[in-house]
Design brief:
Layout (H helix, E strand, L loop, with lengths): L40 H9 L3 H18 L36 H37 L1 H15 L3 H11 L5 H11 L2 H14 L3 H8 L4 H13 L1 H24 L10 H8 L8 H28 L7
Helix pairs in contact: 1-12, 2-3, 2-12, 3-4, 3-6, 3-7, 3-10, 3-12, 4-7, 5-6, 7-9, 7-10, 8-9, 10-11, 10-12, 11-12
Length: about 325
């Protein structure tokens, strides 16, 4: 019996065709630009600052404050130290826009020229305190050991003395308190928090890999500290110094308010606030103007410090 050949039909493989969801062509993913150099910490901080409205507002206010402090004579033609008793306690007028004090001083001139005194004391005290605290804190954190223990105990001693109390004690021992003396007194008692922050920042930076690599390449301790450790540890110190500037302005005004700060011949917001207390019920605006100038100035520097902190410290940024 002859067998017929068995023919098998081979089915063609099924091809699955998936219809496109839409006719829109695929968009190419933006390529990452690998040719441009990455931003440094300071460049990134500057980029974040210009996008922060708090920084823009505070910077604008500080620019106005610095202009007033540098050129108060452009905004008034009155002498802040000239008092005419015949014009005492006058209400606001074209000649005296803010009125006059009990001694016949022009209130507007006193407020404008007081800006120079307050900004000068705050700025130079901030520089002095930052230099003292920054140097001692950097040395304590980098050297360590017994040197760190001694400097830390010295810092604790000064830290236990309140800023205003220590300044009052020293001011009572000085015959005449002028601007340089106030700066020196506040700087001597105001460096402790800068030293603590600098010490902790240096300790966290000195063991980083780039410092170890610099040491392996032959750099000595001074080179590592100055060129590598301090530049990478100074960011929190800048934030603290900016906020402290407002604190020192308040401290100077407080000393003048208590009568142990600047002499009566110096124009000071704290002194004007103290002189306006007896006329608080009858002429409250005499107290309002220097108080408002002091509040705006201090608030501006505190806002600036907060904005700088958010820009330099990614962990502190608001999500």
């Amino acid at each position: 019996m002859r067998s017929e050949p068995v023919t098998r039909s081979v089915r063609p493989a099924a091809t699955h065709f998936v219809a496109p969801l839409d006719e829109t062509p695929l968009q190419a993913v933006d390529a990452v630009d690998t040719t441009s150099a990455p931003r440094s910490m300071w460049a990134e901080a500057g980029r974040n600052l210009v996008r922060n409205p708090v920084f823009l507002i505070s910077a604008a206010l500080i620019v106005v404050i610095l202009f007033v402090a540098a050129f108060p004579g452009l905004l008034t033609g009155q002498d802040p130290n000239y008092g005419d008793i015949s014009k005492a306690n006058q209400p606001p007028s074209s000649e005296h826009p803010f009125g006059t004090t009990r001694q016949g001083y022009d209130v507007l001139a006193r407020v404008l020229y007081g800006t120079r005194t307050s900004v000068m004391v705050g700025f130079f005290t901030m520089i002095l305190a930052t230099l003292i605290g920054g140097v001692l804190g950097a040395l304590a954190g980098y050297v360590g050991g017994v040197f760190d223990a001694i400097l830390s105990r010295v810092t604790d001693i000064f830290f236990a003395i309140p800023l205003i109390l220590g300044a009052i004690v020293i001011a009572n021992r000085v015959e005449s308190m002028n601007v340089p003396m106030v700066i020196l007194v506040l700087g001597v008692f105001g460096w402790t928090n800068v030293a603590r922050i600098m010490r902790g920042s240096v300790i966290s930076v000195k063991n980083q890999d780039f410092v170890t690599a610099s040491t392996a390449l032959g750099a000595n301790s001074v080179t590592n500290l100055v060129k590598h450790v301090v530049p990478n540890a100074i960011a929190p110190v800048i934030v603290t110094a900016t906020v402290n500037l407002g604190v020192y302005i308040v401290a100077e005004a407080t000393l003048s308010f208590l009568g142990v700060g600047l002499s009566a011949s110096s124009v000071s917001w704290g002194g004007d606030i103290s002189d306006a207390r007896p006329a608080l019920r009858t002429q409250p605006m005499m107290l309002f103007y220097p108080s408002m100038a002091l509040a705006i100035t201090v608030l501006s520097f505190i806002m600036l410090g907060d904005a700088v902190r958010d820009a330099l410290d990614p962990k502190a940024r608001k999500r």
